[in-house]
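Figure caption, in words: inputs first, then the predicted bound structure.
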Amino acid sequence: MSDAETLFERIIAGEIPSEKVYEDATTYAFRDIAPQARVHVLVVPKKRYRNVAELAAADPQVLADIALAAKKVAELEGIDGSGYRVVFNTDGDAGQTVFHVHAHVLGGEQLGHFGR
Ligand code: AMP
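Bound structure (adenosine monophosphate present):
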């Protein structure tokens, strides 16, 4: 991976504005700029990995931190009782556009099926 800063590193650094929902020692969560559901929050590790598999191989504890941060986001957004979806897009067919692993946390309404 190149050393060029990703969009999300610039957001975490505060160089690009974001609407923060939650933050802890290893993760940062903020609203997606183009929400695909009533609640759509991105949870990113502060340290960059390209995708969820690279993160899991290198630092499984931080992957667990992301899962727990997603639950915290759901609680803060009041959707932990109604249910929510956590998605990690990986590469082309999944539509990954930012190569700094991130969990999409979606909910706040009945979600459609996904896949094709
Ligand atoms: P993905 O397509 O899985 O890589 O997800 C990237 C997500 O980042 C998309 O859902 C975008 O809407 C979102 N996004 C892009 N730029 C920003 C930004 N400046 N602030 C918040 N979300 C963004």
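Residues 7, 16, 18, 32-34, 42, 89, 95-98 surround adenosine monophosphate (CB under 6 Å).
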